[in-house]
Design brief:
11 helices, 10-stranded mixed β-sheet, two-stranded antiparallel sheet, single chain, elongated, alpha/beta
């Protein structure tokens, strides 16, 4: 095996097939035809004397050597990209970077307007897209550069993923003005017994928030009280206003609703506290563009709180 005889362009094909599980999709991502991609795979197999990928019901699966090679090569390609591009001086005012961030629907409501406003002022030539990624796919999306970062209730465990705490979050209850607890007096906080006698409306977005509302109710043994599930938090205030249900929403959204005169806001007894984090891939640690964006997100959204 002579390294000098290996066409290094083939390594990009190796990584693309590993990421997509398909010769056709790998070719599309690299702007190569299907025959050209198949030929590249054949040359890789010949060079390494290994199948590298084998057919499975869900697509091409890597052999042990294929997995090792694809993982290592991907890390090296990302590091090379950072060395060639990321260390250049970054001037936001002249930047034409297309930023891709994964936010839930609530994250889009809470973070995107302020982020977009600041970018229009400080980096007016850049672009910004919210790429919705399921929480369990965030690591893969960061590795493949489908997204630059994600913000949400995320607990990254992969060794290649970095994270920074932005703030702590808890859930609160919102009802119509005339709603009263089924039992006990109406104070500022709903007790466990009052919650057990109530019906809930919850939102269950998949992107970046990990279904934490339902996890909280399950932990409190209240999941059987869920009457209505919505895909979006934006529907929760009107659902609460027009029904006898208790809408469970994050505190940061509650702050946006405080101006409304047709809703009542309640604390929840023993509501768990969650961490809202910004996550990114370690390969962008020293990329000046990414450093600037991460600093911007912290500047806009990071809250320093007393330890809970």
């Amino acid at each position: 095996m002579n390294f000098r005889q290996l066409d290094l362009n083939l390594l990009r094909v190796l990584v693309a097939i590993h990421r997509t599980g398909s010769v056709t999709l790998a070719g599309k991502s690299l702007a190569l035809s299907q025959p050209a991609t198949s030929n590249a795979l054949a040359r890789l197999r010949d060079y390494f004397e290994d199948e590298l990928f084998v057919r499975a019901p869900s697509g091409l699966k890597p052999t042990r050597l294929g997995e090792q090679l694809a993982t290592d090569v991907h890390e090296q390609l990302l590091a090379l990209e950072t060395q060639l591009v990321g260390r250049q001086e970054y001037v936001p005012a002249n930047s034409e970077v297309h930023w891709k961030i994964s936010l839930s629907d609530l994250g889009e409501m809470m973070f995107l307007p302020k982020l977009a406003s600041t970018l229009r002022t400080e980096a007016p030539h850049s672009r910004l897209s919210n790429i919705s990624v399921n929480a369990d796919q965030v690591t893969a999306a960061l590795e493949s550069r489908d997204i630059d970062m994600a913000i949400g209730i995320l607990a990254p465990e992969h060794r290649g993923i970095r994270s920074e705490l932005l703030f702590h979050e808890r859930y609160m209850a919102v009802t119509s003005l005339d709603w009263k607890p089924p039992i006990g007096r109406a104070g500022k906080t709903l007790s466990a017994d009052q919650l057990r006698q109530s019906g809930f409306a919850v939102a269950s977005p998949t992107a970046t928030f990990h279904g934490s509302v339902e996890k909280m109710l399950s932990r409190m043994k209240l999941e059987d009280r869920i009457v209505l599930r919505s895909r979006h938090f934006s529907a929760m205030p009107d659902i609460a206003r027009q029904t006898d249900l208790v809408a469970i929403i994050p505190e940061m959204y509650v702050r946006e609703l405080q101006w409304r005169q047709d809703l009542r806001i309640w604390d929840i007894t023993d509501a768990p506290v969650y961490e809202v984090r910004m996550v990114w891939h370690k390969s962008t640690d020293n990329d000046s563009r990414h450093q600037w964006m991460r600093n911007l997100v912290c500047r806009l959204f990071q809250r320093y709180e007393k330890k809970l």
